[in-house]
Specification:
The complex is a heterodimer. Chain A is mainly alpha-helical. Chain A has helices at 4-27, 35-53, 55-62, 66-86, 109-134, and strands spanning 96-100, 104-108. Chain A has one domain. In chain A, strands 1-2 form a two-stranded antiparallel ribbon. In chain A, helix 2 runs parallel beside helix 5. Chain A is elongated, with a radius of gyration of 17 Å. The two termini of chain A are 17 Å apart. Chain B is an all-alpha fold. Chain B has a domain at 266-434 and 449-492. Chain B has a two-stranded antiparallel sheet. In chain B, helix 1 packs antiparallel against helix 2 and helix 6 runs antiparallel to helix 7 (152-183). Classes of the chains: A mainly alpha, B mainly alpha. The A-B interface holds A 65, 67-68, 70-72, 74-75, 78, 82, 84-85, 89-94 and B 2-3, 6, 10, 13-14, 16-18, 20-21, 23, 58-62. Chain B: Residues 127-417 form the NADH:quinone oxidoreductase/Mrp antiporter transmembrane domain. Chain B: Pfam families: Proton_antipo_M (PF00361). Chain B: The chain crosses the membrane at residues 6-23, 30-47, 67-94, 106-125, 131-149, 161-183, 203-228, 240-263, 269-291, 303-330, 368-389, 401-421, 456-481.
């Protein structure tokens, strides 16, 4: 039962929702948001796409297997801890630096950790949703 | 060397990540063995450092002690991490042959690494809430491992296992909440300081009993052990073996840690109760075992029985008693894992775990029979194997503390252990094969291939040699355990290592 309205709408909604999820992820350090919420929104976007176009199509749009996302996420989180370690600080200590793009941007290892959380959440949620939907 | 404290956590995590990313069965197997070997290596390095330089502590994230999460390794924790690495490596090598392709392709290897990370984390953390988190990491991985393959019996066992462990986790969390409400800290060293200042009250006793219940379920002590024999024989044998080696021992470790560091104010009540439970656990476990007719179920009941000895030393609460407990934990991890691995080999050769339909293995595979005898005699406490010394020390500690009842129970249970081991010996190895002459095809399997049987037998032989060598060189090993027990009995050094020179 594919609905024309839903499938047309999700084609436009997917990029918008992903943009929102990245916004939530990057915003999360100071205000509500963060890796988990961002990840859930991104996973919801793909889940919506799967409802509209089928799981096969959603997997194709995702490009990689959700499992790889889990691995990458864990690796990113681990890396954020190790960066502090190799610069002679305790493991997982938050290190911050300010990058001056057109706007000033605080960049630090906690952000990197959040990116890891984001990827793991997307990976786990989609793995569950896809395998339940395919059954 | 602060990095040594982190390596036992980072190596399994990294191995799991690599396994997730490559997801190729062949590569996962190779990385699995390398990762476990790395874990063992780092653990041995940690133990050496701790022995040389005293208790090591790391403040994760640079947050100072009572506020952040601390990782601590004293000799006891380091010994446990070494044993975890050793058992992990042995079972990993064994799995190369024994694990079926289907389970491998559903992530057996990454899950095992994550579980090992949880186990090592529980041993190394110095924060009571963080201990809860590591317990969960370990449990969730173990939930999936029990269910992996979704056979009917497995799911039935898994339901019991998951339910009981969730109850235990809830109790654990409640206990942590009560404790935090009382003294306002979660760091174990700081808790020890604060609890010493609190007047003995009903609330302290309640918290200590909640911890005893929570860890008692995980360690499978009387009367909370019933989930263990109901679930441990259902998953594939390498999963059973690693569970038998590590999971209940994490519960015992937590019991020893909590009742030697935090709740030492009312030893007459708390440790008296532990001692009574120890005796009942030993007795009920072994009586349950005598009645069994399934190889692995029988062994599962023995796990319960042996847990009794491990907490007996804690109940006595003397340096010698704790040294005996630690000795028994180490000995039991070796002997019990080995027996499970042997039961797997027997299953491979004969195609069943039912004692009544087995037989004749002492003639067809005498080497295996000898390996079984070494582990079984060690478990029953025959000299000069490792189990003899651990029981000797425990009995001696019991006599010194004038706890004659528990000593009598321990000795009688030893005899019954020997009896049930003899039962396995008679049924599996000694009697003539009931299926002799008719059922040849069951035997073949792929066991004949030299390469695959090497991966199966190598861990068993190595562990067997360790059992014998610990038995023959008991003195230096015992000196190490005595040092660990000394640190447990005198928590001042532990507290100083975590909190620094603060008052």
């Amino acid at each position: 039962m594919t609905s024309l309205i839903l499938s047309t709408a999700t084609t436009y909604l997917l990029p918008l929702l992903l943009l929102l999820s990245v916004y939530l992820l990057l915003h999360g350090h100071d205000v509500p948001g963060g890796g988990f919420v961002g990840g859930v929104v991104a996973a919801a976007a793909f889940a919506l796409y799967a409802i509209a176009h089928g799981v096969e199509e959603a997997r194709r749009v995702l490009h990689t297997h959700p499992r790889t996302l889990i691995g990458l996420g864990l690796l990113t989180a681990l890396l954020s801890g190790v960066i502090a370690f190799v610069s002679n600080e305790p493991f997982l200590k938050g290190l911050w630096t300010t990058v001056t793009l057109p706007v000033e941007w605080k960049l630090g290892t906690p952000t990197l950790f959040d990116v890891g959380v984001y990827l793991v959440v997307v990976g786990v949620t989609l793995m569950i949703i896809f395998s339940v939907a395919e059954d | 060397m602060k990095v040594l404290l982190l390596l036992p956590l980072l190596i399994p995590l990294l191995t799991a990540i690599i396994s997730l990313l490559v997801w190729d069965r062949r590569l996962q197997r190779i990385f699995g063995v390398i990762g476990m070997a790395g874990l063992l290596g780092s653990a041995v390095g940690l133990l050496r450092t701790v022995c040389k330089e005293g208790i090591q502590a790391v403040q994760v994230g640079g947050w100072p002690a009572p506020f952040g999460i601390t990782l601590v390794a004293d000799v006891f924790a380091a010994i446990m991490v070494v044993m975890a690495g050793l058992m992990g490596l042995a079972v990993m090598v064994y799995s190369l042959t024994s694990m079926d392709k289907r389970r491998e392709s559903f992530g057996y290897y990454p899950l095992t690494h994550i579980m090992l990370m949880g186990v090592c984390g529980s041993f190394l953390t110095g924060d009571i809430f963080n201990l809860y988190v590591w317990f969960e990491v370990m449990l969730i991985a173990s939930f999936v491992l029990t269910e992996l393959g979704s056979e009917k019996a497995q799911l039935e066992g898994a339901i019991k296992y998951v339910t009981l462990n969730l109850v235990s986790s809830a109790l654990f969390l409640t206990a942590v909440g009560v404790l935090y409400g009382m003294v306002g800290t979660l760091n174990m060293a700081d808790l020890a300081n604060q609890l010493a200042k609190v007047k003995p009250s009903g609330l302290v006793t309640t918290a200590s009993m909640l911890f005893f219940l929570a860890f008692g379920i995980k360690a499978a002590v009387f009367p909370l052990f019933f989930w263990l024999p109901a679930s441990y024989h259902t998953p594939p044998v390498s999963v059973s073996a690693i569970f038998a080696a590590l999971l209940t021992k994490v519960g015992v470790y937590a019991l020893i840690r909590v009742f030697s560091l935090l709740f030492t104010g009312q030893t007459a009540a708390t440790h008296g109760l532990i001692l009574a439970v120890a005796g009942l656990t030993m007795a009920t476990g072994v009586l349950g075992a005598v009645a069994q007719n399934d190889f692995r179920r029988l062994l599962s009941f023995h796990i319960v029985s042996q847990i009794g000895y491990m907490i007996m030393g804690l109940g006595l609460f003397t340096p010698l008693g704790l040294a005996g407990s630690i000795f028994h934990i180490v000995h039991n991890m070796l002997a019990k894992t080995n027996l499970f691995l042997i039961s797997g080999v027997v299953h491979r050769v004969k195609g069943t775990y039912q004692l009544s339909s087995l037989g004749g293995l002492s003639r067809s595979s005498p080497g295996l029979a000898i390996l079984f005898l070494v582990s079984a005699f060690s478990l029953a406490g025959m000299p000069p194997l490792s189990g003899f010394w651990s029981k000797l020390i425990l009995v001696q500690a019991g006599l010194q503390a004038r706890e004659y009842t528990i000593v009598a129970v321990a000795l009688v249970v030893s005899l019954l252990t020997l009896y049930s081991m003899t039962k396995i010996w008679n049924e599996v190895f000694w009697k003539t094969d009931p299926a002799e002459g008719e059922q040849e095809p069951a035997k073949t399997d792929s066991f004949g291939e030299a390469e695959s049987s090497l991966a199966l037998l190598a861990p068993i032989v190595v562990i067997g040699c360790l059992i014998v060598s610990i038995g023959l060189a008991a003195q230096p090993v015992f000196a190490l355990f005595e040092k660990a027990a000394h640190q447990l009995m005198n928590p001042a050094e532990y507290i100083r290592a975590v909190l620094g020179e603060l008052p």
